[in-house]
Amino acid sequence: MEFPTTGQVIECRAAVVWGVGEPFKMETIKVEPPKAGEVRVKIIASGVCHSDLFFMRGGAGPLVFPCVLGHEGAGIVESVGSGVSTVAPGDHVIPLYTPQCYECDNCKSEFTNICTKDEMLQMGGFMSDGTTRFTCNEQVIKHNMGCSTFSEYTVVNETNICKIDPAAALDKVCLIGCAIATGYGAALNTAKVRPGSTVAIWGLGGVGLAATMGAKKAGAARIIGVDVNPAKVEIGKMFGMTDFVNPKDHEEPVEQVLMKMTNGGVDHALECCGIPSCMKSAFAACKRGGGTLTLVGLAPLGEDVPFNAYQFIAGKSINGTYFGGWKSRDQVPKLVEDYLSKQLMVDELITHTLPIESINEAVDLMKKGECVRSIVKF
Predict the structure, then answer these.
(1) Burial bucket for residue 247 (CB in 10 Å: 0-12, 13-18, 19+)
(2) Are residues 258 and 356 in the same domain?
(3) At what angle do helices 276-284 and 254-261 cross, to 10 degrees?
(4) Three-class HEC string of 231-261
(5) Which of 210, 302, 362, 376 is most buried when burial is the number of CB atoms within 10 A of its CB?
(6) Which residues, in sequence order, are bridge partners of residue 353?
């Protein structure tokens, strides 16, 4: 299949952030054809994630701007550069902010999913050759997380994309590109939640609810959701939550509430907020002699979290997860298959679907806690 735009510069809509703290601004940008090893994708839909808010607020510093954010998208391949063999024009795909090159030591390792190929270039908003494929009014626009799915057309490395079953609705499975994979995998792959265990999950947003689903899948006997929004109770139960604790309802610290509820602490705590105070609280709620905290949420890069050293001596531990520990190109298509066979809940996370022009409304809904996941569509 060949599209009439193959080899041409495409003008299209994109939501651009021009600087720290600025809202999205709808622009007409130019998207260059893919170079060797690259893929140009027509994005159909994208989730709006707290990590996008992290970048907008300057969590990664000012040097990432101006840029096109978005890393939770799905679309259709429009064209490919030379040497690309795993996807072709017309394929339904999910861009992946966690690449898989199959060549670096990490990709060859069974113990990590964090690919190191072009890592620093992607963090800086560039393609593998140190340039970008986006311009707006002759100004260079940077990429973000190797995806940039808030553009109607985007260019990604072949290492950052996977082909999926075309039977899957793109405006649903886009969430597998971040929220679902991250939270679900955090419980299954990283925390390795044990059957019969007690789990506490801080933050019942999209990632936290996916972690709840993962804990249920792993056979946890008790899953305690911790959130300041009482509206999360019913949807938490839908995903497998057995108990709910709102820190605002208690005078004592929430970790003390949980320790009383669980006779000494939880087996697994998953922090899905990216808030240092919550990380400290979650670690304190872990039981001595085997309790484990898994850090899932993205905190500002300069934040430090102090932990008392004795807690480690007492047998507690901390680990972190990135993209839920999944080997992205190998395993995301399998997660899509699980969705199609109704083994994975995705639709239930979507509370709002908006046109891309309303992306700032989606951000406001997220800030106010009035949505679980909003989808923007082109």
Answers:
(1) middle
(2) no
(3) 30
(4) CHHHHHHHHCCCEEECHHHCCCCHHHHHHHH
(5) 210
(6) 375
| Residue 295, pLDDT score | 98
Contact 294, 191 (CB under 8 A): yes
User: What whole-number distance in Å separates Cα of residue 301 and Cα of residue 18?
Assistant: 20
Indicate the Cα dihedral angle 196, 201, 204, 206, nearest 10°: -80
> Nearest to residue 163, comparing CAs of 78, 94, 97?
94
Say yes or no: 116 and 83 in one domain: yes
Task: Determine the pLDDT at residue 301.
Answer: 80
What local confidence, expressed as pLDDT, does residue 211 receive?
A: 98
d(CA 223, CA 183): 14
Helix 206-218 to helix 232-239 angle (10° resolution) is 30
- The per-residue pLDDT for 268 is 98
Residues 26 and 167 in one domain: yes
Residue 329 lies in a domain: no
Same domain, 304 and 357: no
Beta bridge partner(s), residue 151: 14
User: Do 199 and 172 fall within a single domain?
Assistant: no
**Are 202 and 295 in contact, with CB atoms under 8 Å apart?**
no
- The tokens describing 358, both together, are 């309303």
Q: Domain check: are 25 and 153 in the same one? A: yes
Angle, vertex CA 188, rays to CA 187 and CA 193, nearest 5: 65
Task: Pick out the chain residues at pLDDT < 50.
Answer: none
The answer to the question of residue 5 being in a domain is no
Between CA 214 and CA 187 the distance in angstroms is: 5
The encoded tokens of residue 229 equal 């929004």
Range of the domain at 146: 10-177+345-377
Q: Are 165 and 251 within one domain?
A: no
| Domain count across the chain | 2
Report whether 146 contacts 156 (CB < 8 A).
yes
